[in-house]
Write a structure and sequence with these properties.
The two termini are 33 Å apart. The chain folds into two domains: 5-301, Rossmann fold; 390-454, Roll (Archaeosine Trna-guanine Transglycosylase, Chain: A, domain 4). It is of the alpha+beta class. It contains 14 helices and 23 strands. Strand 14 (341-344) and strand 15 (347-350) form a beta hairpin. Strands 5, 6, 7, 8, 9, 10, 11, 12, 13 and 16 form a ten-stranded mixed β-sheet that branches. It binds S-adenosylmethionine (SAM). S-adenosylmethionine binds next to helix 6 and helix 10. Keywords: Cytoplasm, Methyltransferase, RNA-binding, S-adenosyl-L-methionine, Transferase.
């Protein structure tokens, strides 16, 4: 692998005798990981069901390594949202934040959603998760992953950190800043990161990170926790960024991160002031564990914050919309969705509980996308199928993974001859929803979204 020469020199200088084992990892293959989605499947069932050979990632209870020859991204279980493909070291970041059910959580730099989906699962789809991404293209991938994994407690926005900081001052219990960075830790995975690398880029990223962190700080409530992470090795973007943050905000303290199974401490000697307590932060190195390079710091705001005094969103559903939606739920669902229902024109969403006012923000998804009001009827959205469990739908078509043909036909968008006439029907693989179909006079019309078809 051709690494940039100034990068080589710098790492040699920083790592000294460790440089040899470090550079040796560039002769090895990258590691591949996937994380099971506990919102949909339990670990033991998952292990019985998966056709891939998996071995556990020691620092993430839901993470597994898979072999490079396997292609889990192409399996229908992926379409059913049973797992998320994620670089193993990246799985440690959400573990360090570990939000609880019911908390208010912000993922400020969230696309494509590896950590958001992990955080939502830890929150058991409760509380409020703001998943934000500044880039309009990337926010689409984030929103799709949130849909696929059946996440219902997230507001997805396409905003700048400044705009959010104005709106959510003192609001969040926990914030993740998985910052844009120079990506040195991903060189084995992403050749573009090598091409893009320069010392100037490292400096540019460091300055961007400081700005993003100052916005995040404003949004923390008193006692709130902030986790900062990067996938790069450079001290300027890691220890020195945290050093600068601590110097700027006196009421922020570093919290220790548990270091097991090869996770190393951050380097006090790489700060400008030889800050001893920088050893509380964590570094994931490819020469110490099976995974790419990452840095993680955990901080707490101990001082007072301005109290958030915004409003929460109330339902804006008209009587006739309510009637059409309820007619659908009565016929198709055996459960009632009790969350506040909000209409963006004809599109209905079940909002996360106590959803704060989002007026004036670029909202891409607001909780669970239920579906669309058509003329005197309601058409369910794909997101609703992926967020429901088998037990709560009136009609289902249970396909079995041992017979791939009808499953592939469904995923290609073709109709299926079922012989029934049951109307809205949930299509499942081994009991896990893949999407909707509408069964009329023996034929199941396909409602698998066009953009997702294979
Ligand atoms: C490391 S990636 C996030 C990965 C994501 N957390 C995950 O686990 O899938 C950093 C993200 O920050 C976004 N970003 C870039 N510049 C930004 C800025 N000025 N403010 C906020 N986010 C920014 C990038 O578009 C990118 O999606």
């Amino acid at each position: 692998m051709k690494l940039p020469e100034p990068f080589r020199e710098k790492m040699n200088r920083l790592l000294q005798e460790e440089a040899l084992p470090f550079f040796h990892t560039y002769e090895e293959n990258k590691t591949n990981g996937l994380r099971l989605n506990p919102l949909k499947i339990e670990r033991s069932t998952f292990l019985e069901l998966m056709p891939f050979s998996l071995s556990p990632v020691p620092f993430c209870s839901t993470g597994f390594y898979y072999d490079a020859a396997e292609q889990p991204g192409k399996h229908p279980y992926h379409a059913a949202g049973l797992y998320y493909i994620q670089e193993p070291s990246a799985m440690f970041v959400a573990e360090a934040l570990r939000p609880e059910p019911g908390e208010r959580v912000l993922d400020l730099c969230a696309a494509p959603g590896g950590k958001t989906t992990q955080l939502a699962a830890m929150m058991n789809n409760t509380g409020f998760l703001l998943a934000n991404e500044i880039h309009p293209k990337r926010v689409k991938a984030l929103s799709e992953n949130i849909e696929r994994l059946g996440i219902t407690n997230a507001l997805v926005t396409n905003e700048t950190p400044e705009k959010l900081a104005e709106r959510f001052t003192g609001y969040f219990d926990k914030i993740l800043v998985d910052a844009p960075c120079s990506g040195e830790g991903m060189f084995r995975k992403d050749e573009e990161a090598i091409r893009y690398w320069s010392e100037a880029h490292v400096a540019q990223c460091a300055s961007k990170q400081r700005h993003i962190l100052s916005c995040a700080y404003r949004m923390l409530k008193e006692g709130g926790i902030l986790v900062y992470s990067t996938c790069t090795f450079s001290p300027e973007e890691n220890e020195q960024t945290i050093e600068a943050l601590l110097a700027e905000y006196e009421d922020l303290i570093l919290l220790p991160i548990d270091k097991t199974v090869g996770i190393q401490p951050g380097r006090p000697e790489w700060t400008n002031t030889h800050m001893k307590e920088m050893a509380k932060t964590a570094r994931l190195w490819p020469h110490y564990l099976k995974g790419e390079g990452h840095f993680v710091a955990k901080l707490q705001k101990t001082g007072r914050s301005n109290q958030w005094n915004g409003k929460t969103v109330a339902s804006n559903l008209s009587k006739s919309a309510q009637r059409d939606y309820q007619a659908f739920t009565k016929e198709v669902l055996k459960t009632e969705i009790t969350h506040t229902i909000y209409a963006f024109q004809q599109q209905l969403f079940a909002l996360p509980k106590d959803c704060p006012n989002f007026e004036g923000l670029k909202v891409v998804r607001a909780g669970l996308h239920l579906g669309e009001l058509k003329k005197h009827r309601f058409e369910p959205n794909h997101a609703l199928a992926l967020a429901l469990k088998k037990e709560v739908v009136a009609h289902s078509l249970d396909l079995n993974s041992s017979d791939q043909e009808p499953i592939m036909k469904y995923l290609r968008g073709e109709t299926l001859e079922t012989g029934g006439d049951r109307g809205w029907t949930m299509v499942m693989i081994d009991g896990y929803p893949l999407g909707w179909g509408k069964e009329v006079k023996g034929t199941l019309k396909n409602f698998y979204p066009k953009g997702l078809r294979i």
